[in-house]
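Quick one:
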Amino acid sequence: MYNHQLDTFLTVADAGSFNKASEELFVSPNAVMKQINLLESSLGFDLFVRTHRGVRLTPAGESLYRDAKYLIQYAKDSVARAEKMVAEPKHVLRIGTSLTTPVQFLVGLWPQIREHNPDLKFELVSFENTPENAREIMNHFGRNIDLVAGIYSENILSERHCSALKLYDTPLCAAVSLHHRLAAKAVITVADLFDEKVMLIRRGYMTAFDEVRNDLAENYPRIEIEDFSFFDVNVFNKCENEDAVLIGVKEWENVHPLLKIIPINWDHTIPMGILHSDKPSDDVKAFLQIIGRIYDVES
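Output:
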């Protein structure tokens, strides 16, 4: 499922030397060095700086180190889910959950879902919220994850070859630090954003955010817009640390304990729905029909 030289790489990085890693792995130092050399050769860049005191990670090695543990765990979880599907192949929906793909409302609907289809089961699959993971999951719904709940736009669905059951339009809101001057307000106006740094997802990511950007740029020159590339934990941390205003949705109110979500007195909204494959399984179709009836929308 993955290159097992990554296990050796992690052990060497944690140990700080080939000799110490060899003791943990019960192989010779030469065998450890050979595996690392082969891994570096296959990647085309160095992972370690070798010194007489031991080894330390290069910047590229630090980047791989951060991702390798997730890759290994994801591969192991994939095998475990596959084995579970062999043992219990039917009626298990794998619902992806991450920082910005909430499942709380689905859990709240569970009694109604069970009433319609008592055989249907949930399996929550946690994933790290990165651009790569989001693209991989949405492009391959049904492989490891069957569906996620979240905001979307038609361009996202088109680019990633998936579909969505729209549940409702949710207002775009402001996320601010608990210590921000606007945090005491129940509702804010656009004028309240004057002379503030407003964080907006990059142009072209989702249409609704582009409409906000156009509105602010054309009509409110006193508002400073700062781009970012993706909704991840770093963005929410930056919003809190820099006392900025992040445009998001009320469904993210539990994402960061030091941020408050406040409605804005404007008409900007974005679709919230269930994202799934263009060719959903029978169980996914059944689930979408149930959710559609509960929300009184067409599945």
